[in-house]
Amino acid sequence: xxxxxxxxxxxxxxxxxxxxxxxxxxxxxxxxxxxxxxxxxxxxxxxxxxxxxxxxxxxxxxxxxxxxxxxxxxxxxxxxxxxxxxxxxxxxxxxxxxxxxxxxxxxxxxxxxxxxxxxxxxxxxxxxxxxxxxxxxxxxxxxxxxxxxxxxxxxxxxxxxxxxxx
Length: 166
Known about the structure:
mainly alpha
């Protein structure tokens, strides 16, 4: 009860640093998982929507995912923030996890290839596009993007040859 009063008092006084510290200490003491989940949601809403504090929101999501590692809502929120901040490791890990969850999904491999390509991991992108095409040979976009990678590599080689640096 003490944490609850302290947290809500800090919130109403708009002392958000004190509110965040109190909630961070309070959450591990909540035994009921559904109550703990609701508190995470409220904590997120205050920092994400009201305060628009990206750093604190990512910190809360890290806590929430330790507590609820398979929660789709928290995972998607973390991914959205990772995309917004261009966090390469998080985005790749999320796409790789999708492939592990459904290794027969051509869409998962296509999405993974796009992520690899976005971060210039071209060999991994090529392998993912090829796997996507093995699972779905009619995926024109995978063919097109794979061809684009090879085309761009060819153009770069031609430029090197033209400059005499080959």
